[in-house]
Amino acid sequence: QVQFVESGGGLVQTGGSLRLSCTASGFSIEDFAIGWFRQAPGKERIMFSCFSTDGSSFYYQDSVKGRFTMSRHSANNTLYLQMDSLKPEDTAVYYCATAGRLSRCYSHYGSALMALYEGDIWGRGTQVTVSS
Question: Does residue 11 contact residue 131 with C-beta atoms inside 8 Å?
């Protein structure tokens, strides 16, 4: 079955850290550019970063720049999201998904959103809760 499985979420205090995992099943993590998304309670799901197959990273939200870092471990078929200096506003369900089933992320956020389509592969998400 072709899918992503996210893990690593949980409850953490403000200023703490978590590392999320996005493990690919049924295909190689190196096959596609992969986006990270999050959906806060009562809000729309947004794409905040993307990792290209060549290893380049794009962070679309200013609020995560300098705090969140993506890395790929091909042997584990996993993309990681290291989240540091967490804030209550980071509370959300976090998802990973292919970014339009392309190999490279768009540097422009609007273009990245336009690339998404119904054939993208998604995970079911993992809950991150940051307490104040």
Answer: yes
Tokens of 64: 């995560």
**Of the candidates 17, 1, 20, which has an alpha carbon nearest to the alpha carbon of residue 9?**
20
What is the C-alpha separation between 11 and 61, in angstroms, rounded? 22
**Each residue's pLDDT tens digit, 43-91:** 999 999 999 999 999 999 999 999 999 999 999 999 999 999 999 999 9
Q: Comparing C-alpha atoms, which of 79, 75, 74 is closest to residue 98?
A: 79
Pairing mode, if any, of strands 34-39 and 92-98?
A: antiparallel
- List, for residues 1-47, the tens digit of each pLDDT value: 899 999 999 999 999 999 999 999 999 999 999 999 999 999 999 99
CB of 91 closer than 8 Å to CB of 128: yes
Phi-psi region of 100 (alpha: psi -120 to 50; beta: other; left: phi over 0): left
Residues 6+ away with beta carbon under 8 Å from 110: none
